[in-house]
Amino acid sequence: MLQLRGHEYDLAESRRLHLTVAMDDPQQLSELLSQTRYKEVINSPSGWGVPETPLRCAASQGFLDCLKILLDNGAEVDSLDVKAQTPLFTAVSAGHLECVKELLQAGADPCGSAYNNCSPLLIAAHNRNDKILVELFKYGAEANVKSKRSDCALSIKTSTGPLYISAIYDRLHCFKTLLLYGADPDYNCTDPKLLQRIKHPRPVLEICLKHRVRVDYVKLLIDFGANIHLVDEDVIKLFVNGEAADLLMQERGHPRTLMSQCRLTIRSLLVRLRKIHLIDKLQIPQALINYLQYEP
């Protein structure tokens, strides 16, 4: 009888492990991983087309029970596929909230891979998934994430980001969630290194005007402390008949209230301390907590 050995033997075990996950059979998966020969190939890519690890398969398909079993048996939580995407990235892309939670609890990097120019946060913002955004922020995701590759075109770096994406694609809830968790309303206009390389950065307010997004976005940016003077007055005049442009011109003539200034100062301090997600834990009256979180 033909016996598989060495690499061929491992390949057969890897294929069976992958097929079991693809069929979402947690009972069979537990039985296989109780055997050393299967446990040794738990991080081996397999499957038709583009090979993937069992954990990536479970994450992308939303097979939570299989995902838990794989993690409990030592699956590498941040293993990369051929596109440098982690299992967390694929779970976020597919909108599998429970899998996202499980992966983050197991230590997955909320920022994804350094070799992938995109990130879980950008994908969640684009896909209108504010619940996943909140989970990513709980584990330290960066609200002002920029392009990771230094060789990317500067124009791309200065006109993309979570706030830009959620505004242009009309993801209002995600837009507000990003701001609540520390996204800079003056994104790209406060980075000293970037300002040395470009003369005229494009603030989010200007992007909102040019793409004629709903006035709600401009209101939120103003409430969260956007510098309304970063937008050139000539640009505003181009959209003089727009509701957003009218609001911007109106706000230019009115200073912020003291209460608003205090809220922005407190929130800015919490962002610098990376504690913005702990506002509701502050030992202050609930009415003040609500105000800091822009709640009624």
Automatic annotation (TrEMBL):
Pfam families tied to this protein: Ank_2, SOCS_box
InterPro entries: Ankyrin-SOCS_box_domain, Ankyrin_rpt, Ankyrin_rpt-contain_sf, SOCS_box, SOCS_box-like_dom_sf
Tagged with keyword Nucleotide-binding: no
Keywords of the record: ANK repeat, Repeat
Domain SOCS box: start-end pairs: 248-296
Pathway field: Protein modification; protein ubiquitination
Family statement: Belongs to the ankyrin SOCS box (ASB) family.
Protein name: Ankyrin repeat and SOCS box-containing 12
Lineage: Eukaryota, Metazoa, Chordata, Craniata, Vertebrata
GN (gene name): asb12
